[in-house]
Specification:
The complex is a heterodimer of chains A (161) and B (154). Chain A has 161 residues and is α/β, with parallel strands linked by helices. In chain A, 28% of the residues lie in helices and 24% in strands. Chain A has a domain of 97 residues. In chain A, β2 and β3 form a beta hairpin. The relative contact order of chain A is 0.16. Chain B has a domain of 86 residues: Nucleotidyltransferase, domain 5. Helices cover 31% and strands 19% of the residues of chain B. Chain B has a six-stranded mixed beta sheet, covered by helices on one side. Chain B is elongated, with a radius of gyration of 27 Å. Classes of the chains: A alpha/beta (161), B alpha/beta (154). Chains A and B meet through α1, β1, α3, α4 and β6 of A and α1, β1, β5, α3 and β6 of B.
């Protein structure tokens, strides 16, 4: 029997162009849809039931921090208890006073002190986060580690404008 | 003068292999880093920055995210809700689902509040007190991580 040999001298060339087209289309899609997601973090607050009942009676009195809104809903005044914190850096002062007030001799964050935030209705929310930052801790500039101050933060009942 | 003709029968083809390798590697990279799981992120909200805003150590058991825009609108489960009453109705449905189908208490659910930095604080407080009425207990105020300290030393 005679076996026919196919002519093997012809080389089969693959058409690369459509594949490269698709590859580049995919690449462009992913490049354009790629967005850098900034890390997000939380301030955890535990506020069971209605705010009036939530205040567990503790030995230490609750520190009250008032944030007042002024023109264009910006921060007008910060008060710690009855003491107004003046100057252009009220949150820095607030943090310094909190650090002086709390007893964290058993280690950072060991204080069971509680802070109640009383904010004006119209105040921009970023000032509240700044106040919570000042109250809950700070970043040690030498070690670059976070030091906790007061972790129990709650809101005073809302007051409609 | 006699010109010598070069043999021009061969077709010169560039080697495509390294380029295709690189293109595939880039595609693989972008496919891996594309983040479809973070559906809770909403670009309409500009979060307030804080150096203490750390990503949670472990994922929440039962997270429930409420977005609050600068204009005072709410985004919950992908729906834009214009008023607090609409949000209450949506949350009420959610509480029924949690209590019926999941083996969880409402106190275990963490309500994540993603409020815009220019939103009214009073609305955030209204959301919290409304959630308290619905027996939610745990709240997380979300902020974006700031590299530089936002609080200056006095």
């Amino acid at each position: 029997m005679k076996i026919r040999h196919a002519d093997r001298r012809e080389q089969i060339t693959l058409q690369m162009t459509p594949m490269i087209d698709i590859v580049f289309q995919l690449l462009i899609f992913f490049v354009f849809t790629f967005k850098i997601v900034l890390p997000e973090g939380d301030f955890n607050i535990r506020m069971p039931a209605a705010s009036g009942e939530s205040a567990e009676e503790s030995e230490t009195p609750v520190i009250r921090v008032r944030l007042r809104a002024g023109e264009n809903r910006n921060l007008a005044a910060v008060e710690l208890g009855d003491t107004p914190l003046t100057g252009d850096n009220p949150f820095g002062q607030l943090q310094a006073r909190i650090r002086g007030m709390i007893d964290d001799s058993a280690g950072p964050g060991s204080s069971d002190q509680e802070v109640e935030l009383d904010c004006d209705y119209d105040l921009r929310y970023r000032y509240v986060i700044q106040a919570i930052t000042a109250i809950t801790g700070y970043v040690d500039p030498t070690t670059n580690e976070q030091v906790k101050l007061i972790e129990k933060v709650r809101f005073a009942p809302t007051s409609q404008p | 003068m006699r010109l010598t003709k070069r043999h021009s029968g061969d077709i010169v083809e560039g080697d495509m292999t390294p380029m295709i390798d690189m293109a595939f590697q880039l595609i693989a990279f972008f496919m891996l880093v594309v983040n479809f799981s973070d559906a809770e992120q909403d670009q309409r909200i500009k979060l307030p920055a804080s150096e203490l805003a750390n990503p949670p150590q472990a994922p929440y058991d039962e997270p429930l995210t409420i977005h609050l825009t600068e204009r005072g609108e709410f985004i919950f489960s992908g729906n834009l809700l214009p008023s607090l009453e609409d949000l209450r109705a949506a949350l009420l449905r959610e509480t029924q689902i949690v209590s019926r189908h999941l083996d969880k208490k409402l106190g275990d659910v963490t309500v994540i509040i993603r409020a815009d930095e220019n939103a009214r604080t009073g609305i955030v407080q209204e959301v919290i007190s409304m959630c308290q009425e619905l027996k939610f207990e745990r709240f997380a105020l979300r902020g974006k991580k700031a590299e530089a300290p936002t609080i200056r030393s006095p």
